[in-house]
Amino acid sequence: MKDKETIYTIPLRDAFHVPVTKRASKAVKIVKAFLVRHTKAEEIKLDSSINEALWDRGIKKPPRSVKVKVVREDNIVKASLAE
Fold first, then answer.
1. Looking at domain 4-81, does it have CATH number 3.50.50.60?
2. Which stretches within the chain are classed as H helix?
């Protein structure tokens, strides 16, 4: 199957509805849930660049949104930070 590449802007506003000590980890879960919903894939692999961007300012202040480049190979989705 041909690889398909897409760029998504993922809003992380729901990460701010949890306690401050859980925000960055909630943001990671939001990114994975967004990609499952939009790509209908069984397996999501996040690049370390996404993790570093979400945790850059610490656990209390993740970014409000993140732009992600997604490459789909069969039922595996690989996501990295868009430049």
1. no
2. 23-39, 48-55
